[in-house]
Design brief:
The two termini are 41 Å apart. Helix content is 51%, strand content 3%. It is mainly alpha-helical. The protein binds flavin-adenine dinucleotide. The site of flavin-adenine dinucleotide (FAD) has 23 residues, from helix 7, helix 11 and helix 16. It comes from Lasiosphaeris hirsuta.
């Protein structure tokens, strides 16, 4: 009875902000322990450099960072090189190439040994080629590339302020929100066609129309949601809900992800006067506090991921495929125990999000396919992000949400022959995205306190 209906952003009665914050206080230490102390969850494999932005020519859309940074850092030339956006956006730490298909094919019974970065045995990170599954909400990281990409240490590359901003970043966000525009045939979508739509050349006209329509929709959205009576529990416009609940959910997932990224930028912000990394209350006020709908969407995502992780729990504990490495037995057992601890805590509240209300009406199945295709496109747009660190976290979190949606909408689909087994990259993305959301909730609470105390609010 207390599940959040997708119709409400965060319902007052059952899952107020404080309910989710209480839950987060319980879950967050466990999930942080998992993502910070296990090799399995602190290294992510992705194709960060080899994929071209499929939506626009790089010279237009890919910002060289220096140019992007001009709007944020008044004069790039005037600041020390280490603080420039191009430096801040660089990846740090060991990176290693995937061992390659020939080695993978051997499928060794004993773990491979080799140098995949500090303290990471290959046994913990090797992944075999997987088939693409129709039920994926994201483009698998290895799609259409010979190599499976690089391993990146998430601990060495925290999500924080990088100075990436300006036209390049805006173009990416516009394209992402453009996917929320569900009108028919705006441009062809991937899953049914097998490959990405490409709004270059003449098709760019359509793409522009989509973005403009999305912009209008967003303005309406903001007007509709700025209800001064409800500072933290945003109400939804039921008139729109009646129209299409699923489209609203799509928008909230994107907006909540954007809000979480903004929260980390503001929380881990570089003060270029002192050179200190510290919270920036004015940044929080401008981007989040004065837009309660964004905060509400962030909490909505927290509820959605909590539900996905709770739902995944029984599969993780019973499925023999989830052995978390097949390498060092002690380490694997410790990782498994930490995963199950997160699951147990996330399951300690009554079902917190009711996904069964979605994709129910007549157009349910086709709408679901549309929803899935659009989410895949969002994951493709991430290849257009012109800052390495931002792209890393953008890709990881899109994959995390994609995995959560797959768990919510595909795991109890009676038509499906079997429950899809999640890949390692999906699990890593899911739990790290959950950790990111948990840390956003904590930061928002602290920022709220700072605003109330009048600390540096704009
Ligand atoms: P933006 O955040 O660029 O927002 C653009 C517009 O979207 C706003 O004007 C507003 O109308 C609307 N909007 C903003 N927030 C929301 C929301 N939550 N819901 C709905 N609408 C909203 N920068 C970093 O410093 N570090 C990072 O790790 C980083 N990661 C990024 C990852 C991705 C995928 C992208 C696209 C960008 C990333 N950036 C990062 C850049 C960052 O998100 C901003 O684009 C940049 O800081 C400029 O911010 P802005 O204030 O101009 O507004």
């Amino acid at each position: 009875a207390c599940a959040i209906s997708p119709k409400a952003i965060v319902s007052d009665a059952c899952a107020s902000y404080s309910t989710l914050e209480r839950l987060n206080r319980k879950v967050n230490p466990a999930v942080e322990e998992l993502v910070q102390t296990t090799d399995f969850f602190s290294y992510y494999r992705l194709n960060l450099f080899n994929k071209k932005c499929p939506f626009w020519d790089e010279e237009n859309g890919m910002c060289g960072n220096i140019a992007c940074a001009v709007e944020t850092l008044d004069n790039e030339e005037d600041i020390p090189e280490v603080w420039r956006a191009s430096e801040l956006g660089k990846l740090e730490g060991p990176r290693a190439k995937h061992p390659g298909k020939s080695i993978q094919r051997e499928r060794p019974k004993t773990p491979l040994q080799g140098g995949l970065g500090e303290n990471v045995g290959e046994s913990c990170v090797v992944e075999y080629d997987d088939e693409c599954d129709d039920r994926d909400y994201c483009v698998p990281e290895d799609e259409s590339t010979a190599s499976k990409g690089d391993y990146v240490s998430l601990l060495r590359n925290p999500e924080r302020y990088t100075g990436y901003a300006g036209a390049g970043a805006k173009q990416v966000w516009d394209a992402i929100y453009g996917e929320n525009c569900f009108q028919k045939s705006s441009f062809p979508h991937s899953a049914s066609l097998g490959k990405v739509m490409m709004p270059k050349g003449p098709a760019a006209m359509d793409f522009k129309a989509v973005i403009e329509a999305a912009g209008r929709q967003q303005v309406l959205e903001e007007q509709r949601q700025s209800n001064p009576l409800t500072p933290f529990v945003a109400k939804t416009g039921l008139e729109h809900e009646a129209e299409c609940l699923e489209k609203r959910v799509f928008y909230r997932v994107i907006s909540g992800m954007h809000a979480s990224i903004s929260t980390h930028i503001c929380w881990d912000f570089l003060n270029q006067t002192t050179g200190q990394w510290q919270p920036n209350v004015a940044c929080y006020s401008n981007r989040l506090h004065n837009s309660p709908d964004r905060i509400s969407n962030l909490y909505f995502n927290y509820a959605l991921l909590t539900r996905a992780i709770a739902k995944l729990g029984p599969y993780l504990s019973s499925h023999t495929d989830y052995t978390f490495c097949m390498g060092d037995r002690d380490q694997d057992a410790a990782t498994r125990a930490k995963v199950l601890s997160v699951v147990e805590k996330a399951s300690s509240v009554p079902q917190i999000f009711d996904e069964s209300l979605m994709f129910k009406n007549g157009e349910g199945p086709s709408l679901k396919e549309d929803f899935r295709n659009r989410f895949r496109n969002v994951s493709r747009v991430m290849d257009c992000v012109g800052c390495d660190k931002c792209r890393l976290w953008g890709k990881l979190q899109t994959s995390g949400y994609g995995t959560a949606l797959k768990v919510l909408f595909e795991f109890d689909n009676n038509d499906a022959p079997e429950v899809p087994v999640l890949k390692r990259t999906e699990l890593v993305a899911l739990f790290n995205t959950y950790a990111r959301l948990g840390s956003s909730l904590s930061a928002i609470q602290q920022f709220r306190g700072m605003v109330e105390e009048g600390e540096g609010a704009a």
